[in-house]
Amino acid sequence: MIEYSAQVVIVGGGATGVGILRDLSMRGISALLLEQGDLAHGTSSRFHGLLHSGARYAVKDPVSAKECIDENLILKKIAPNCVVDTGGWFVHTEGDDPQYVTAWIEGCTKAGIPIREVSLDEARRLEPLLTQKAKRIFEVPDAAVDGFKLVWANAKSAQNYGGKFLTYHKVEGLLRNEDKVIGVTGKNITTGEDFVVHSEFVVNAAGAWAGQVASTIGVPLQVLCDKGTLLAFNQRLFQRVINRLRPASDGDIFVPHETITIFGTTSKLVDHPTENQSVESEINRLLDVGTELLPTIETHRVIRAFSGVRPLHQEEGDNSENDGREVSRTFAIIDHEEENNIQGFVSIVGGKFSTYRLMAEKVSEIVARKLGNSIPCLTAEERLLPEISGKLIEQAKEIMSCAVADKMLERLGDQAEEVLREISQNPRKGQMICECEMVTLAEVEKVIADDDTHNLADVRRKTRLGMGTCQGAFCTYRAISLLIDKGYRKDTLVVELKNFLNQRWKGIRPVLWGQQLRETELTRAIYAGLLDLKAEEGLTCGMGSSSAEVSRDLLREFAR
Fold it and tell me: I need a surface site. Which of 41, 166, 192, 344 has the fewest CB within 10 A?
């Protein structure tokens, strides 16, 4: 049994959890965050990547609308490397209710969300793929945000202030001494060792798992699991976020990210946070409604489908059992001393990725007050990561192309200096491991060497390796051998290779048609043909006979 201690234990390594870790650490409070997987492996990376202006909620949820616009402005200031200020349009089309537009304009005005009507001529010039059936278009300050980058930036900032986090440490129970929570127990998933953390306070920021954490000491906490499915296209279809100007429904938003576009989403209540598999009916539904904003949607290549589970707070008397869209997107903080007469324990549920910093601030204020700490919140003022020096930018662009340098600096910040030094000393390390996302050998080696990197999936979340249009077809076999320095044996390398490909296959399988099907056949040829990986050995990503038969059937259908 391994023992740790901290003033505060935070359960959950999503955006809210790392936001709380940063906030408490900046106040001088000793905090330890525990996450059952890698940081951002859950809902915080399984969403459309929108930094909300609040306009989506202007009619029905004015509190969320105001929270979103306020946090939108803050995050653009403190996390510029994580946010791309694309701007956004709300598009009112033929058949949409004109009275909703009136209510929406009024709601945006009340929430303080700036809007500007865009002429149809200007819109057609700037976004030629947009439907010709648009009647009115309004511009709002939406933006695109990278969930992986933002979560890791918060974690690194917290570390600079003494905060600590442990990944692959699953909390299995809360420690309770009569009417007070005094810590947590759990298991290190990578080693199988049990651990215990003694603390003065526990913050439950486990998202969709928050109810399960609270239940370990018999505390009821109602969390609705609302699954949303999204599609990723292999190109940037729009230059700005495109929203449907109507009440929230399926398939009403396109968000441009880097060289791809994410389109979604759906809403379906599920029983458990792990029910995040995309299904054919959801994908067909999205493609059907997507034609209303993008008439040519079926001619564009979908590279994967993915789903995330939104943790929605269900209050007493809430009758939203069948429709997650009816649940407010505001967040709820439950002080269990007030609610359940249990000291040293607070939970936070609901909310949105865009408001994670505000959520963290409100929780941290409660915890700090109970610990007798009066230092104010500073997270809205200080940048997450130091600004990259002009000298470092110049150095990067001297030894690599501007595009590669920009991507690396966005991901690593001032830690890029170590990578640049490696490439300067050994130019071979500047070769691309992942061309899609422009990830160099030196960067992959650096990330693999991190203590909190345990597998290729961790590398993916830190560098985006395997997340481009080839979905890992070429970069996976290049990266796998680099794990040898991490202590992997040959047999475990093969297992790791299969695990990584199967993770990619989960999102590719539902969209096997057209060009994506052809590329999957190429991937199968590489791994089943050249590397001799077989389905009977545990590889299920279209490389063996059964899935190959499915691919051939689909290919014949497509050829017709």
Answer: 192
